[in-house]
Amino acid sequence: MSKETTKLQKEEAREAFKKKVYSIMFETSTPQGKKFDLLLLAMIVFSLFILIIESLPSLSPTTRLVFYILEWILSIIFVGEYLLRIYVSPKPMQYVLSAWGIIDLLSILPVLLLAFTDSVIYFRIIRILRLIRIFRIFRINQFTREAYSLYNSLIASVYKIAVFMFFVVMLAIIMGGLMFMVEGKESGFDSIPESIYWAIVTITTVGFGDITPLTDAGKALASVMMLLGYAIIAVPTGIVSVEMFKQRELESKQGKQKCPQCDAENSSKAVYCNQCGNKLVSGELKVKS
Amino acid sequence: MSKETTKLQKEEAREAFKKKVYSIMFETSTPQGKKFDLLLLAMIVFSLFILIIESLPSLSPTTRLVFYILEWILSIIFVGEYLLRIYVSPKPMQYVLSAWGIIDLLSILPVLLLAFTDSVIYFRIIRILRLIRIFRIFRINQFTREAYSLYNSLIASVYKIAVFMFFVVMLAIIMGGLMFMVEGKESGFDSIPESIYWAIVTITTVGFGDITPLTDAGKALASVMMLLGYAIIAVPTGIVSVEMFKQRELESKQGKQKCPQCDAENSSKAVYCNQCGNKLVSGELKVKS
Amino acid sequence: MSKETTKLQKEEAREAFKKKVYSIMFETSTPQGKKFDLLLLAMIVFSLFILIIESLPSLSPTTRLVFYILEWILSIIFVGEYLLRIYVSPKPMQYVLSAWGIIDLLSILPVLLLAFTDSVIYFRIIRILRLIRIFRIFRINQFTREAYSLYNSLIASVYKIAVFMFFVVMLAIIMGGLMFMVEGKESGFDSIPESIYWAIVTITTVGFGDITPLTDAGKALASVMMLLGYAIIAVPTGIVSVEMFKQRELESKQGKQKCPQCDAENSSKAVYCNQCGNKLVSGELKVKS
Amino acid sequence: MSKETTKLQKEEAREAFKKKVYSIMFETSTPQGKKFDLLLLAMIVFSLFILIIESLPSLSPTTRLVFYILEWILSIIFVGEYLLRIYVSPKPMQYVLSAWGIIDLLSILPVLLLAFTDSVIYFRIIRILRLIRIFRIFRINQFTREAYSLYNSLIASVYKIAVFMFFVVMLAIIMGGLMFMVEGKESGFDSIPESIYWAIVTITTVGFGDITPLTDAGKALASVMMLLGYAIIAVPTGIVSVEMFKQRELESKQGKQKCPQCDAENSSKAVYCNQCGNKLVSGELKVKS
Questions:
Q1: pLDDT at position A124, please?
Q2: Between C267 and C80, where is the model more confident?
Q3: What pLDDT is attached to residue D267?
Q4: Which residues contact A164 (CB under 8 A, 6 or more apart)?
Q5: Taking a C-beta distance cutoff of 8 angstroms, is the pair D241, C234 a contact?
Q6: pLDDT bucket at C195, cuts 50 / 70 / 90
Q7: I need a labelling partner for C134 at 20 to 30 A (CA). Which of C54, C100, D66, D260 fits?
Q8: DSSP label of A257
């Protein structure tokens, strides 16, 4: 029986430990949680710094070796951190499948795949996405609110932009095909995919100039296309502007929120109740971490 | 008499056949119609895939031959399909002159013209326009509605954009002429049409860089032109934004629609009546196919 | 006395003649006025056509001579037309100083200056501005109204855009100076004016690529500048959009106009009174010709 | 005692002198203040003119020497002016730390640092910022009001634009890293910082073309990136448009202001009271000089 009790106690202790680690790793309200997140941020920034330095061609072999070892150490820490996060989560799958879980996985993927050679290594740049946590850690409310507002506007216009993109890509394919037909293979329009690449460069008004029409017919067709693209570029701007306007209207209409503790009316932008000082939920970013 | 009856029966059978084929070819509400459209879409995508592969320079003669034969087979099918569509239409001319009829004709034109050699072949890229059917087949209501809304906004601003384009082209011609005068023939401004092409590349902010001013006067004039173009690019965006805003206002004002079956009020975005489940017309794309 | 009467009659006849010619040259409501304007348009288009052909490098000397003579004939006609316009105007100075008078003068300036040699000849391209008459001749009411509406929006935002341009040019000068300092003379940043030209090319997102930063510091500074320009490009669009929105609001508020003949209420967009069919003034372009 | 009185009188005289000089240097309402500011503007413009001329490569040593001496004289005057401004200010630190104080300091910094050799000299271009005074001197009320209105709109959207820039830079870093991985070092994507520079050039649609993808995978990735950038460019425009709209609404709502002298109602845009002719404060730029 004592053995069983010990087992139970152990189990309880483990649960308490998991809970504590969870609060440190996933929350930022406790001082320890904040410290952990700051440490993590610092390590991510340092890891990105190593990555960028490593990419410079003029690096002595010794420095390269030092950075190589440092990167291995950081990568092993990140893998451990990921496994620990899964271990302490009450619902591990929920974490793994969340946006943050996927970003965390992608960040360590090059290590997991032992693809620590060649240029695949640079896929680690995706780690920068983990820096979005910065909004959460520093609780810069004005920023998170604006980020959330931007996010809402974009979500509201996602269908319109998808439809728009469908037609832009279609236009790029048609124009690419026609330019390939008109210009022939001498001008750098070597194949249809190449021409579609050129068409996208042109419609988006980037205009690298690595491929340009040489024949008169090609230049005429390109001119029509550029004027068309000129009018077309107005469309996504119009879409987003209107949604932002509606979002802004909505925000100023919502106006009021009730404090759940004392029932006092507060501005929807309030972070603390102006009567009882209770922390209000609406002041925080609603994106789950 | 029996002969006449047979004739009449034949006529009737033919009419019934035409009606059935029509419903398969032009409608997507029946399972057969949907299957037909999916098959057609697959063939169009395959045809485009062939076209793009054919354009690659590094293709073995055997592969090229195989693709050549496949393309011929697909083209003959598309020609047959076009003729059948005309045959089964109750009002053939209406189909031929509709937007879809013209796209279908353009898609098979290279074959009809027996222009199956040289680079005219690549005009087949226009077949991609037939993919717009995708909206119709999958009945992605949200998308068709957004497409329709975008379409309305653009139609409403078409006059303003036409006037704007008139002045932009005029500005490009004047600027092209002046640059030709200032730069002379040494800098790549070989003729006025060439200079107008350059002016369009510049005003639309594409900026390939294949032709650039070399003299000081040319650079000064180009600078003025770019600053002008910078302010001008705001115009189409303004036009489209305002129309989209009005369109959006209109949509949210319409607000309600009555179910034609049970007279219940429904949201204008509803696809089925919320009282009797009757399919509402407004939820569909109003563009005729 | 008879002599005096003759003189008076002559005077009167001349006045009547001047009035008639005036109505032909300046008005488009009479069939003769319309015919005159159409002929003029045709001659301007032909003159522009000659100008463009003349600029092509691959032209035989004979063709060049023919075009040279044709251009001389047209130019003399235009000079004659300009003088006649002054002669028949009741207030000649008003015509000369009007927008149209200045455009007409600029169109014949190269001839007047006998600068019919060299490349100054291409300044004739400015003649294209006379094509704006097309709106007046064809009385395409929808277009003139839209042109007028665009014009109003731009006029309303002219102060804001001027202030904006002041700051953009200032930014371009500062950035040009800094890039010249950072890049040195090896990279194509040969002088400050050259660098300012580059800065304008970059801020306006044209990006020819004829001059590009080569040093790391230069690339970093250019990156900051491009991101700045990215945010800045939003400003003129915002200005114009808001003015267009206000203009549009104004137009839909004005709503009604009274027919000056029968006092019936008409939409502000009406061209003819819906009660008596009287032509309404508001349907026409208010810009004086 | 007479000595003390003299001292006191001297002190008073000095105070009066300081006050007078202050009003000349810092204010523009007196004729002398206006003259001083005009002289200063002229000297700044002349100094910028020298700077630009000096940067031209084709300059004879004699001219260069003359300009060198002139620049030294102007610089000493500007240093003297800065010291005098500090001396006559009632609260010197307030001036030194104000926006104008910092600009004035930056303008003379190259001289103070005795860095009057090499290319650091061109940092003097920052002097152009002092030209903003032009709004104050000429009291072009319409312009200052528009500048103020633009300024307000930008301030109101500064958080949203900061958040947007955070994500754009993040996207540029990720895309730069991926392109470096995909393209390898042969295509000009020499290092990650170089690739990030390319990504910024591409996302902002500048598109110099000094570095372009050469591999198929690189072109595909670049295409995705350009289409993404195409949608993204809509965001700052949307942000600024909405804020400008709100600003404009606010301005037209404010509508009225009371004259502090006679209590008469005036338009908020009025510069003088329409009853008593009293100068109204609101008509001036609220930015402190």
A1: 77
A2: C80
A3: 58
A4: A235, A236, A239, B150, D231
A5: yes
A6: very high
A7: C54
A8: E
Would you tell me the crossing angle of helices A234-254 and A158-183 to the nearest 10 degrees?
A: 170
Tokens of C163: 């202030």
Helices (H), A60-157: 61-88, 92-97, 99-112, 133-138, 141-156
CA distance C231 to C141: 38
Q: What is the separation, in whole angstroms, between the first and last Cα of chain C?
A: 42
Could you say which of C207, C208, C241 has the minimum Cβ distance to residue A241? C241
Q: C208: which chain D residues are within 8 Å (Cβ-Cβ)? A: 208
Residues 6+ apart with CB under 8 A from B141: B271, B283, B284
Separation CA B150–CA A239 (nearest Å): 9
User: How many Cα atoms within 13 Å fall on the side-chain side of residue A102?
Assistant: 3
Q: Enter the tokens of residue D59.
A: 């300059």
Is the entire prediction scored with pTM above 0.90?
A: no
Look-up of token digits 């159409």: C38
Query: By CA distance, what is A107's nearest residue in D?
Result: D174
B-side interface with D, Cβ within 8 Å? 205-209, 237, 241
- Is the CB of residue A214 less than 8 Å from the CB of residue A183? yes
pLDDT at residue number D283: 41
Give the pLDDT mean for B193-200: 93
Helix, strand, or coil (residue C274): coil
CA nearest to C191, candidates B220, D66, D128, B210: B220
Alpha helices in chain D (DSSP H): 2-26, 31-55, 61-88, 92-97, 99-112, 133-138, 141-156, 158-183, 192-203, 216-232, 234-254
The mean pLDDT value for A154-165 works out to: 82
Distance CA B229, CA C207 (A): 13
Q: Which residues pair with B289 in a beta bridge?
A: none
Q: Which residues of A190-229 are buried (b: 16+ CB within 10 A; e: fewer)?
A: bbbbbbbbbbbbbbbbbbbbbbbbeeeebbbbbbebbbbb
Distance of CA A216 to the CA centre of its chain: 44
Give every CB contact of residue A203 below 8 A, 6+ residues apart in sequence: A168, A171, A172, A175, A225, A228, A229, A232, D230
What is the pLDDT at residue B105?
87
What is the torsional sign of CA C48, C50, C55, C57?
positive
Mind telling me how many Å the CA of B16 is from chain A's nearest CA?
37
Amino acid letter, residue C67: F
β-bridge partners, A256: A267
* Sequence-separated (6 or more) residues with CB below 8 Å from residue C216: D193
The count of CB pairs under 8 A between chains A and C is 9
Rg (CA), chain C: 27
What are phi and psi for residue A100, nearest 5 degrees? -65, -40
pLDDT grade for A289, boundaries at 50, 70 and 90: very low
For tokens 């804020």, what's the residue?
A: D243
Cross-chain Cβ contact A204/D180 below 8 Å: no
Distance from CA of B68 to the nearest CA of A (A): 16
Q: Which residue has the higher pLDDT, C283 or D17?
A: D17
Q: At what angle do helices C234-254 and B234-254 cross, to 10 degrees?
A: 50
Question: Got the DSSP string for chain B?
Answer: -HHHHHHHHHHHHHHHHHHHHHHHHH--SSHHHHHHHHHHHHHHHHHHHHHHHHH-SS--HHHHHHHHHHHHHHHHHHHHHHHHHHHH-SSHHHHHHSHHHHHHHHHHHHHHTT--STTGGGGGGGGGGGGGHHHHHHT-HHHHHHHHHHHHHHHHTHHHHHHHHHHHHHHHHHHHHHHHHHH-GGGT--SHHHHHHHHHHHHTT----SS---SHHHHHHHHHHHHHHHHHTHHHHHHHHHHHHHHHHHHHHH-EEE-TTT--EEETT-SB-TTT-PBPGGGS--S--
Residues B174, B49: Cα–Cα separation, whole Å = 43
CA distance D223 to D226: 5
Q: Which residue of D lies nearest to A243 if distances are taken between CA atoms?
A: D238
DSSP class of residue A157? T
More confident residue, C249 or D139: C249
